Amino acid sequence: MELFEFTLEGQIDSFNIDSWFKIFSKIKEYLFVAICDQDLYQQALNILSKFFSTDQLKYQIYDDSSTIFVKTI
Q: Which of 3, 45, 50, 66 could form a disulfide with 8 if both were Cys (CB 3.0 to 4.6 A apart)?
């Protein structure tokens, strides 16, 4: 989680939205499971908020992660 958080310290580059979406697709299951962990939830929420703060990316992420999000809850 710390590695993911470190990678996302800067802003997500709007020129590489497709690349960031591929990265999110690979780690989304880990992020949503980490939300359930008392020690990791804050880092996971920080990472998710970074992805969702990008206008061009948040709708793709929402569509891609809706099923795993429901399973996590």
A: 50
Residue 42: per-residue pLDDT: 92
DSSP 18-41: HHHHHHHHHHHHHHHHHTTSTTTH
Global confidence as pTM: 0.76
d(CA 1, CA 44): 7
Residues in the chain: 73
Instruction: Compute how many other C-beta atoms are within 10 angstroms of the C-beta atom of residue 24.
Output: 21
* Stronger pLDDT, 23 or 13, i.e. the higher one: 23
Which 8-state DSSP code applies to residue 73?
-
Q: Taking a C-beta distance cutoff of 8 angstroms, is the pair 48, 7 a contact? A: no
